[in-house]
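User: Hi! I have a protein structure encoded as tokens and I'd like to know what sequence might fold into it. I'm fairly new to this, so please keep things simple.
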């Protein structure tokens, strides 16, 4: 296990009616001017908006709304939110939604306090913001675990880059599984697969020897797989939603990463695919993972073989390590098909004339991956995914 420092700044309120029971107490610590941020307006249809506005008004807050945060949030949208925050002298940001809203607000919080362009500040000057507008989040769509960290993935359309930026941690996160019951099942499964992907990408990092973090990770992966199946079998079971929303948080609260250098090469490739196509993140990962993992097989055989046994329950009797490793990739590919996620770019509706060469050439190459990929190898993977 590598050396590490672990600190966890996000307070979590988990369970049904968590907003009703705890949000007012948290708002009492905040300033008067609140930026309420959300996406396309589904919270206005399912009652969440009215519930939260009632709590905000009872707390005496002046509310400015920041709406229309899209999937794959853009840098322009971040700047719009930061401008709104500055003009309205916002004291506190309340984000309501899934990973896109959550990520966007992390960077809004930082950009509103920074007197220069945050993209250039982080990428050209290699700086990290230190001042933020305080924030809280009400999670309504799970999968990314974005509420647990200060990283965000933002699409800079002018630069044709979908890349990580670093912003604020949330002071608190409200995780009420009941809020996720109105999500379309397609979105539920896509988000849950992203949680599985986060867990696998963390597991496949270095060191390769299994440590305590990895064993906790194996349990998390088993939990996600089991509860995706249970959710599909009974969409109205709130217990399975509870498991999946907490599994998403576990995948990104740092516990699985303790003592690890993570992989996330598949994520970096999917991010650039998203920059060029604006595709669904979880679906893109589902298409990419099996193909990329087959390219990783020679370098990742021991870890894949262990996953086959410990996560997927494959009987090791009479099988070589190499056979088990291949069985893991086969099991993952079969599961993706079983749960209705796409297996090719064509199934996702991605055009054949998409510039896959440009996507590969602009993808960040990660240091923690078991295999050190080149842009040419990533291009071949993209071609195989068509």
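Assistant: Happy to help. Inverse folding works backwards from shape to sequence: for each of the 386 positions I chose a residue that suits the local structure. Here it is:
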């Amino acid at each position: 296990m590598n050396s590490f420092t672990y600190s966890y700044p996000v307070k979590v309120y988990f369970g049904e009616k968590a907003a009703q029971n705890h949000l007012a107490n948290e708002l009492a610590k905040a300033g008067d001017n609140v930026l309420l941020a959300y996406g396309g307006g589904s919270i206005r249809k399912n009652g969440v908006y009215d519930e939260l506005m009632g709590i905000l008004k009872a707390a005496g807050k002046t509310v400015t709304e920041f709406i229309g945060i899209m999937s794959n949030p853009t840098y322009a949208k971040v700047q719009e939110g930061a401008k709104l925050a500055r003009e309205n002298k916002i004291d506190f940001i309340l984000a309501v939604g899934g990973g896109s809203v959550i990520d966007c607000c992390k960077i809004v919080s930082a950009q509103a306090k920074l007197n220069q362009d945050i993209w250039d500040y982080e990428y050209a000057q290699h700086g990290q913001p230190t001042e933020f507008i305080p924030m809280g989040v009400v999670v309504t769509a799970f999968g990314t675990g974005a509420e647990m960290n200060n990283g965000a993935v933002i699409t800079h359309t002018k630069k044709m880059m979908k890349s990580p930026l670093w912003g604020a941690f949330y002071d608190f996160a409200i995780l009420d599984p009941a809020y996720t019951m109105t999500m379309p099942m397609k979105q539920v499964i896509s988000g849950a697969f992203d949680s599985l992907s986060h867990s696998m990408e963390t597991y496949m990092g270095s060191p390769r020897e299994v440590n305590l973090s990895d064993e906790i990770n194996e349990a998390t992966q088993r939990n996600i797989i089991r509860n995706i199946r249970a959710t599909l079998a009974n969409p109205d079971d709130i217990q399975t939603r509870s498991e999946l929303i907490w599994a998403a948080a576990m995948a990104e609260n740092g516990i699985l990463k303790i003592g690890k250098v993570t992989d996330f090469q598949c994520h970096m490739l999917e991010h650039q695919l998203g920059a060029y196509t604006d595709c669904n993140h979880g679906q893109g990962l589902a298409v990419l993972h099996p193909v990329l993992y087959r390219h990783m097989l020679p370098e990742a055989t021991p870890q894949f073989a262990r996953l086959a046994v410990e996560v997927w329950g494959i009987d090791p009797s009479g099988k070589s390590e190499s056979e088990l490793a291949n069985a893991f990739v086969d099991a993952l590919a079969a599961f993706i098909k079983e749960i209705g996620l796409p297996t090719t770019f064509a199934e996702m509706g991605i055009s054949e004339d998409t510039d896959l060469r440009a996507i590969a050439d602009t993808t960040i190459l990660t240091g923690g991956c078991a295999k050190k990929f080149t842009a040419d190898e990533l291009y071949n993977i993209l071609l195989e995914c068509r």
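A useful reference point when you look it over: The domain at 11-179 is CATH 3.40.50.1970 (Rossmann fold). Feel free to ask if any position seems puzzling.
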